[in-house]
Give the backbone structure.
Amino acid sequence: MNRKRNTTTFKRILSCISRYRLGVAASLICAAVTVVLTLYVPILIGYAVDCIVAPGNVDFNGMLVILKKIAVVAAFTAIAQWLMSHINNIITYRVVKDIRTQAFNRVESLPLKYIDSHQHGDLISRIIADIDQFSDGLLMGFTQLFTGVLTIIGTLIFMFFINPVIALVVVLITPVSLFVASFIAKRTYIMFQKQSLTRGTLTSLIDEMLGNQKIVQAFGYEDEAQKQFETINEELRVWGLKATFFSSITNPSTRFVNSLVYACVGIAGAFAAIKGVLTVGQLSSFLSYANQYTKPFNEISGVITELQNALASAARVFELIDEELEIPDAEDAIVLADAKGEIVLDHVDFSYEPEKSLIEDMNLLVEPGQRIAIVGPTGCGKSTVINLLMRFYDVNSGSIAVDGTDIRQMTRKSLRTNYGMVLQETWLKSGTIRENIAYGMPEATEDQIISAAKEAHAHSFIKRMPQGYDTVISEDGGNLSHGQKQLLCIARVMLCLPPMLILDEATSSIDTRTEIRIQKAFAKMMKGRTSFIVAHRLSTIKEAEVILVMKEGHIIEQGTHDSLLEKQGFYAELYNSQFAVAE
Amino acid sequence: MKNLLKYFKDYKLESVLGPLFKLLEATLELMVPIVMAKVIDIGIKNQDISYILKMGGILVLLGLIGLVCAITAQYFAAKASAGMVTSMRNDLFAHINTLSYREIDTIGTATLITRITSDANQVQSGLNLFLRLFLRSPFIVFGSMVMAFTINAKAAMTFVVIIPVLSVIVFGIMLISMPLYKKVQKQLDRVLLTVRENLGGARVIRAFNRQEDEISRFDEENGLLVKFQVFVGKISALLNPLTYVIINIGIIVLIQTGGRQVNNGIITQGQVVALVNYMSQMLVELVKLANLIITISKAIACAGRIGSVFEETTSITERNHSITETIHSSIEAKEQVPFVEFDHMKFTYAGAKEPALSDITFRAMKGETIGVIGGTGSGKSTLVNLIPRFYDVTDGEVRIAGNNVKEYPLKQLRHKVGIVPQRAVLFSGSLRENMRWGKKDATDEEIMEALTIAQAADFVKEKGDGLDFYIQAGGKNLSGGQRQRLTIARALVKKPDILIMDDSASALDFATDAKLRMAISKNTDDMTVFIVSQRATTIKNADCIVVLDDGHMAGRGTHKELMESCDVYREICLSQLSKEEVK
């Protein structure tokens, strides 16, 4: 199962790389050249050494020719090596860029359902960390795996070419090195697991205690926290020590095997030299092969773990890329021009999870220009209605129509352009205040921007910012208060003035005095525009033409403020409860 | 950095023995070419088989002793690095807990968490590598040179030239590429930011139909990243080819001079092979050294960041506990003294230009309820945070029972204050454990009593597990309103003399809010209660209401007094309540 998944991921990666097959071919040629030349140098050195036999018996002319050859070969090796690395870099980073772009394009067209129900941290780590891991693995695989394998094969061929018997000795001893390495790796794995498990526990404790440090201090809980911390930290020390120690045994052990190989080559080579089958120069070539030959083995085991990680990471990224897209707009989708604002909800059923029904059989007729307020306790489905109106989610059954057309029959873009939306969650992008206000209308003039800001009562605080409208808002609007962010979100909508409005707790973080002023601006804006208002404070919705009282996904009451109060129903209860002051 | 060096003290022995054994191993390694030279010059030349076997045995023995030395070294290195970082982590955690709100605000919680987790881990692996390898590689490089001198001074001169050239190349490339890598990292952060922003703002981006602009912005950032990556890759790819060429030039020169020396009968053929071996050994070590330096410089940067946290000292210091009696006894002595008193108090946040609060003066007698009301950012939370001395005032005084809060030992002061923060935070663990934050030995009856007052008893019973109910990290398995009521109960368990509720009923519906306030006033006769709120209903019945406007006190008094005298207060009330309710 797992293996099958790996193969499909692997095939997928190959197809991503195939765009750059010319580059890959060039890289492989360079790698082959590098390996062959690198292996050729020890032989040349061996020849050179053979020119030096004894005092008075040194072939200087022959030596000079060989030395020149060495210089040329080394120069070519260096060039080939550099070219190979450079090509590998280009291919890897381009492939990674392609995949990252694909992943990001997905983010922009995934259904909101997916974005809402997945942790953003997880999605981010797929697009950033996983792709990075993949790129490391790919690069390493390119440079080391291929050259490593080629080096081993090449060395074997060269060694058998010089002296098959000694070559055989080397081949027989090498597996010991692999055996030792895998033996240690298996045992270390458990300790690393324990280490990362303990590390995780410690991190969540840190996250909890330091993340809420103010509370820890307020309750004088520091000593308790320290005690808990030290206990887990000690556990981490023990596992950390074991994991580090056992994993670091691998290196000396394989090196010991290497020195065994070296000794054996030395002895066998010396015997062969005595018999006259091997020259001293050839022995020296053999010795340097013995050093070179075992190195790729040690590296390859590292590369393989890296590649496995890369494969797992790539699989996670592809999973994201393969997520189902939003249902695309119909081919013949209508472009909704300036909407009049007649909205009809016809037997609408909707739920986020199939087994938990939320909105059932909702019917509603909104006349153009009407102001609709939605009230009700938390979780009654107020924000869900908005998700459906904007078509962030599609209804399960029934239909929603704007100006007589089912919203599924029009382009999402045109539908959403006709709505202006201010949400409780204030999202601003990193950039200047000006860019943020003009977000819905990038071509807006300075005057338009300033007058929108004035309407939203944001102008005065913007002016007081260090760079006014050019002040850069840091990530998540960290340098603004929540209320200020909300004012900017309002200004953003004030600038576009679309024909229909949605205000979901749009003023929840603004103090009541400013709110009154904004309400006036809102009132002006809402005139002649179909608007939906969700609010906690009942005082802000009294003016609405229709108040929908929702409870557990149903509209249980509907009417004006006065008619609902008269009815003495749920709304009246809700309204009166806010004044039930304890005397 | 200095305050980190002290951790070596506890592991002096390990820190010396680790590198020492490593050097021993390296020394043995340096002897291998000499032994091999003997095999060639004596064994092969004299056809002495037993000598060759003896030397082969020595090679294996050298490897074996080397193995033992290396493993010993790894053990000491692992022990020292794990141990040192563990004590450092303990100290760091304890130190962070001593920091006051002021420092936490400036440094930022996220930063502190990274310091104690990933930075500390980096230091540990850097330390481990440092103890194992840092001495080894230079030792082998210079050792090779020394060994070359013992063979032949003239040939060894090649080493004297080659080593500085190699060092210049290795360090030069590192110096150039390291800042470039930082640039790459920064660009990666920008890419991450774009992704995060697009996930968080999915609704707004779609509502304003800006998907395509976001995609092209991402492409821009992503393209820049690739450009940086390829550029730095191109430079660091020079390292291997260049060193390879230099070493081979060295070998050519060695063979040539070696050849002359052999011709003159000064050295033997085997010794030439040994010289060549030393040269190639250096190549391997230099590359290792370069990688090591990168890891270690990362670790040093991390250690520096940790060090800077250690340098941060708390701005809130305890005076030589001049007041030894408890707050209780002192209040009984002076009945007429106000319990909590703000006297011309001014407070400015670290780094802010304008004071957050200025000229605040009011007093609260024992058992009174004080309401604090005002718009967003008017300084309400700041005001109550000064009572338990989370911040120190900039000017003026805050007094409890007639004494400046600075006179009390912090523990005692905070023990007397129960605070319910704005953000309702609970910790992973049982409900009982959470409730005992306020009082370590609270009985179940005491806890149930607090839960009842906080209007939490009912839903706790519904959960079925009673006080054993397991709360997940951050209280994820509870609703916002439930969390708020539990945090109120947690403060009540403490039976504090002063209870501070910082907008802590915002998620409760109006009816529950009213019931809660009634229960608190009924059950806490002696408690002085501070209620911070944006809702006029919540504070309307307080004994004294403090009205804040933009950091200034706009008024203080009862509801009735303020309705007559205070414009700001009247405006707040009228915006929230109907005419009749204002009365």
User: Anything to note?
Assistant: Chain B is about 65% helix and 10% strand.
